[in-house]
Amino acid sequence: MSTDIANVATATRSIRNPVLAGFHPDPSILRVGDDYYLATSTFEWYPGVLVHHSRDLVNWRSLGGIITDRRLLDLRGCGDSNGVWAPDLTYHDGQFHLVYSDVASFASGYWDPQNFLVTAEDITGPWSDPVKLHGRGFDAALFHDDDGTTWLLGMSADWRPGRDRFGGIEIQQYDRAARRLVGSPRILFTGSPVGVTEGPHLYRHDGWYWLITAEGGTSWEHQVTVARSRELFGPYEVDPDGPLLTSFGRPDLRLQKAGHGSLVHTQNGEWYLAHLVGRPYSPLGNCVLGRETAIQRVEWPSGGWPRIAGGVPADDVVAPDLPAHPWPAEPETDHFDAPELGRCWSTLRRPATPDWVDLHTRPSYLRVHGGQSPVGRQAPSLVGRRVGARECSLETVVEFEPADHRQLAGITAYYNTLNWHHLYLTRADDGRTVLELLSSDNGRRTAYPELTVDADGVTRVGLRAVFDGPAVRFDYDLGAGWQRLPVELDATILSDEHAALIIDGEPAAWGFTGAFLGLWVQDLGGDGVHADFDLATYREQ
């Protein structure tokens, strides 16, 4: 089953949340005619800004990513959970507009953000060269007003010690013809007492300007705040009844971390909110699947405030009055017959260019040229896909001829440079090709020499990584059938919660992504080694 298509019975006309399972945070939802689009954050992974498409808000298919090359954004050297934050997708005057933030840091009160804008006449591109906007904060978003003007909103960062780092929501006019910001920025909204005000989206409705923001941080206290004003520049009144949506204080809910929302209006006048959620493996525990995308129905009476039933995220939501539009299911097995990587795959910190991802030299094989070590941030060679269910697996067949211990190729359960499990082929000191297992928990590596398997003389090796709830297991096949390595590894280290590290009140590390299953090749000596993968099968239970 695809992680990108909601597994729902369309006959019931219900939305089953999350609609995008696995690492798909910070959704920006958009309708153009009869088509709905969801754009989500991608951080250090290419392609940047994944886009999904629906006709009924129930069934979604992946269109791939927008940022596919370094012309649009260079992620070499990007830190863990840095890179592309909170994209915003709008449509105006026959053009799609995508604003995205490239955040370079979050240490010592600094973020070093840079915001960009690209445009296209079609959602699949081609996209324009990026317009460099400001670097005063992140979560930038466009608002196209009824009078034809366009405005850029964003969180305004304040680096000064002792000040609120979330300095409010800033607004500045954007000249679409000149493709540049004009006039002076001004603070539009300083937030509610909850604080940590970010993720702005602005709408016109019922004679009001409606400002939707994310507050409370990105974890359990996350929420969607609504404020309104008769005038663009305010003052903005916060909904006196509290947040439009939150999971805070309800650890019994299946969907936690509800926040960072954006609104969409259907052809028939119905309103829905796309928003971020997490599904912890235990009450307020680790969310191995990362931050996902859900959709809630919004009731919006004339003259009143928007409302979501109970103000909490529902697992099942009444679908809009639209014809059901399912998409073909994604095949379980990728035989690597296509000229490019399938849309289910992502690559770490560098786009899938032919110099290291080769689908042509050996037809029906994915040839991956080795890259840097697990901590390398310029040229790693990891091709991965999002983990979309508690029980799932990735299976592959690899051909690899290592010349020494610096050459490794295999399969991984991966979160970031510091947290991963890796089963790989390499060469032992005595010249044998062997299978070895290595894990990293916040940078502390654990080897399992007692589990080393002799694979010498085997040209094709089957490898399988299995997520079984809180455990990760590895299997191998040397030609005589599948064998399991007799060890259970901790899946919960592959989570935002485990990756986050606060020292003296400052974030030394953060976690905003989710677990991946992937094909990983390392060439630590830079000798030009490659591995060939014959197929890859992803299954969910």
TrEMBL record:
Ranges of residues in domain Beta-xylosidase C-terminal Concanavalin A-like: 333-539
Coiled-coil residue windows: none
Keywords noted in UniProt: Glycosidase, Hydrolase
Pfam families xref list: GH43_C2, Glyco_hydro_43
Family: Belongs to the glycosyl hydrolase 43 family.
Protein name stated in the entry: Xylan 1,4-beta-xylosidase
Organism: Micromonospora noduli
